[in-house]
Design goal:
GO molecular function, one term: transmembrane transporter activity
Largest sheet: 2 strands, antiparallel
Oligomer: single chain
Subcellular location: Membrane
Membrane topology: Multi-pass membrane protein
Structural class: mainly alpha
Strand content: under 5%
Radius of gyration: 23 Å
Strand order of the largest sheet: 1-2
Number of helices: 22
Family: Belongs to the sodium:solute symporter (SSF) (TC 2.A.21) family.
Transmembrane segments: 6-26, 73-97, 126-150, 162-180, 192-219, 239-265, 277-300, 320-351, 372-391, 397-419, 426-446, 476-499
C-alpha cells in the first residue's frame, strides 16, 4: 500500500468507528423514551462531571481550534493568536454565567435561551427574535466545521463535494437517532484522539529543532511578506482590532445556542461549576495548536491549491508517518462533526420551542416537539452549506466571526438578562434589530483584500472594519460586532428610559431571585447515572443556594 492509501484507510476506519459509536449512543444511558426535548435535546439533564467535561470541550473547542486558528496564524502571524486570550477570558466568565443559566433553566425547564428571554421579559415576540437570530448565527459556525472536514478531504486527494455530503449525512443520521447523547459519547473518543495528537505534536516539534527554529522560519517569511497585516508582532494599529476581537468573541460565545445546550445537560449546579473552573486546561491545547501555523511555515508547508484551511492537514501529511497522519485526520474530522451536531441540535431546539410551539402548534406534545427538532437538526447542517457557497472568505475563521457579529446582538437579553430585568422588552427588540442592521451594514463595507493589498471583493470581506472606511486617518480596524453591540446597548437604554417615562407597561418577569441559585432535586434523582459518572450523591433541599 502507498502512504496515501494508508492515510485514507486509517482515517476512514477511525471515522467509521466514530459514526458507529454515534449510532450506538441511543442505547447509552437509555431512558424510557427519547421522544421529548428533555431527553433528545439535553440528554435528560443527567450528565455528570466527566461526561459534561468532554461534551463542553467537544462543543466549545471545535475544528475552529484545530484548523481555522493555525491557518490564520500561518497567514497573518501574531493576529491569529487572538483566540488564545479570548479562550482564557471565557473561563471566569463561564463560571459566573453558566451557573446562573443552569439554575434558572433547571427551575423552569428551559432548553433554550429564547425560552429564558420569554420568561424574563414577558414577550414571546422578543423570544422569537432571539431564536431566529441564534439560528442564523449558528449557520456560519457550523460552516466552519464543514470547511475543516472539507480541508481534510482535499489533503487526502478526495475531490468533489460528495465526500463532505456523505459525512454530513452520516453525522446527521447519528444526531437524528441519538440526540445529544451521540456528540456526548463521541466527545470522549475525540478527547482521547486529541490527547494523542497533542503528544505527537510535542514530540514532532522537539525532534524538528524546537519552537525556536519554527519562529525563525516564520520571521523570515513574514519579513519578506508584502502584506502590511502580517508579522510575528502586531502591525501598526493592529492592537485595536486584536483587543476588540478578543472582547467581542468572549462575549459572543455565551450567547451562542450550543453553549447553553452543553451546560443544560449537566445534572446539577456543582457539575457546571467544576467544569467551568477546569476549562482553562483546554487553553493549553489551543495555544499549542495555534503555534502549528508557525511550525508549518518553518517546515516549508504549502497549502493545497492555495487553500489556507489545508495547512494543518498538509503538515500532518508531510511530517507524520502515514498511519500517524491518518489518526490526526480522524481527530480533526471528529472535532468537526461533534460541534456541528451540538449546534444543529441547539438550532433545532430554538425553532421548536420558540417558533413552532409558540406560533404554529401551541398544543404540540413532547413527542411532536422531539420529532420536529430531529428534522430541523438535519436541515440546519445543510443550511450551513449555503454560507459556504454564498461567502468565500480568505480564512474559514471569518465564518465564526461573522456569526459572532450576529449573535452578539442577543447579549443584552440573553446574558445581561441573567442579572437584571430593568430593560424594557420593546427596547430590547429595537436594540437587537438596530444592532443587526448596523453589523450587516458595516460588514458590507469591508472589502476582501489579497496579501499584496489588492481588493478582490468590494463587500463582505471579513468582520474587522478598517477605520479608514469611516474617514479616520489610521490603519486600525475594529471588530464590527462590538460596534454594533455598543449601538444596540445605547438603543436599549435610551428606549427603556423613554418607555418608562411614558409609563408603557413592561412584560411580567416569571422568574424569581432564588431561581438563579436553584440546584437539582436531591432525593430520588430523576435520571440514572451510569458508566463514567457514577451514582448521584444526595443533596439537601430541592433548591439549595450555593
Amino acid at each position: 500500500m502507498t502512504a496515501r492509501q494508508v492515510e485514507i484507510g486509517v482515517f476512514a476506519a477511525l471515522l467509521g468507528a466514530m459514526l458507529l459509536l454515534g449510532f450506538s449512543a441511543a442505547r447509552w444511558r437509555r431512558p424510557h423514551s427519547l421522544h421529548s426535548l428533555e431527553e433528545w435535546g439535553v440528554g435528560g439533564r443527567a450528565f455528570g462531571n466527566w461526561v459534561t467535561w468532554f461534551l463542553l470541550g467537544g462543543s466549545m473547542y471545535t475544528a475552529y481550534t484545530y484548523i481555522a486558528v493555525p491557518a490564520l496564524v500561518y497567514g497573518v502571524g501574531a493576529a491569529g493568536f487572538f483566540a488564545v486570550p479570548f479562550a482564557i477570558m471565557t473561563a471566569p466568565m463561564a463560571y459566573l454565567i453558566s451557573t446562573r443559566t443552569w439554575s434558572v433553566s433547571h427551575a423552569h425547564g428551559f432548553v433554550t435561551s429564547a425560552e429564558f428571554t420569554r420568561a424574563r421579559f414577558g414577550s414571546r415576540g422578543l423570544a422569537a427574535l432571539v431564536a431566529v437570530t441564534g439560528i442564523v448565527a449558528t449557520m456560519p459556525y457550523i460552516a466552519v466545521q464543514l470547511v475543516a472536514l472539507q480541508a481534510v478531504m482535499k489533503t487526502l486527494g478526495v475531490t468533489g463535494e460528495w465526500p463532505l455530503t456523505v459525512a454530513v449525512v452520516m453525522a446527521s443520521i447519528c444526531t437524528f437517532r441519538s440526540g445529544l447523547r451521540a456528540p456526548a459519547l463521541l466527545s470522549i473518543a475525540k478527547d482521547v484522539l486529541l490527547l494523542w495528537l497533542v503528544l505527537a505534536i510535542v514530540l514532532l516539534v522537539a525532534m524538528s529543532g524546537g519552537w525556536s527554529a519554527a519562529f525563525r522560519g516564520a520571521g523570515e517569511r513574514f519579513t519578506a511578506d508584502v502584506s502590511p497585516a502580517s508579522g510575528l508582532l502586531l502591525p501598526e494599529g493592529g492592537w485595536v482590532g486584536y483587543l476588540t476581537l478578543v472582547l467581542g468573541s468572549a462575549l459572543a460565545i455565551f450567547a451562542y445556542p450550543h453553549a447553553l445546550t452543553g451546560i443544560l445537560a449537566a445534572r446539577d449546579r456543582a457539575t457546571v461549576q467544576r467544569n467551568a473552573a477546569a476549562l482553562p486546561v483546554y487553553c493549553l491545547a489551543l495555544g499549542l495548536v495555534a503555534m502549528l501555523g508557525f511550525f508549518a511555515i518553518g517546515q516549508g508547508v504549502r497549502p493545497v491549491g492555495g487553500d489556507l484551511n489545508t495547512v494543518v492537514p498538509q503538515l500532518f501529511h508531510e511530517v507524520f508517518p502515514a498511519w500517524c497522519a491518518g489518526i490526526a485526520y480522524a481527530a480533526v474530522g471528529v472535532a468537526a462533526l461533534i460541534p456541528a451536531a451540538v449546534m444543529s441540535i441547539a438550532a433545532a431546539n430554538l425553532f421548536t420551542r420558540s417558533i413552532y410551539r409558540e406560533y404554529l402548534r401551541p398544543g404540540a406534545s413532547p413527542r411532536e416537539e422531539a420529532r420536529v427538532s430531529r428534522w430541523v437538526s438535519l436541515l440546519a447542517k445543510f443550511g450551513a452549506l449555503i454560507f459556504i457557497l454564498l461567502l468565500d472568505p480568505q480564512f474559514s475563521i471569518e465564518f465564526q466571526l461573522i456569526g459572532g457579529v450576529i449573535v452578539l446582538q442577543t447579549v443584552p437579553a440573553v446574558v445581561l438578562g441573567l442579572w437584571t430585568n430593568w430593560f424594557h422588552r420593546w427596547a430590547l427588540a429595537a436594540g437587537l434589530l438596530g444592532g443587526l442592521a448596523t453589523g450587516l451594514f458595516l460588514m458590507y463595507l469591508i472589502p476582501q483584500r489579497a496579501p499584496d493589498g489588492r481588493i478582490l471583493k468590494a463587500h463582505f470581506g471579513g468582520s474587522n472594519l478598517p477605520l479608514a472606511q469611516l474617514g479616520f486617518d489610521t490603519r486600525a480596524a475594529v471588530y464590527t460586532g462590538l460596534i454594533a453591540l455598543a449601538l444596540n446597548l445605547a438603543v436599549v437604554v435610551a428606549v427603556t428610559l423613554l418607555l418608562r417615562a411614558l409609563r408603557v407597561p413592561a412584560g411580567t418577569d416569571a422568574t424569581r431571585p432564588a431561581d438563579y441559585f436553584a440546584d437539582a432535586t436531591t432525593t430520588a434523582p430523576r435520571h440514572s447515572d451510569a458508566l463514567l459518572d457514577g451514582p448521584t450523591r444526595p443533596r439537601v433541599g430541592a433548591h439549595a443556594a450555593r
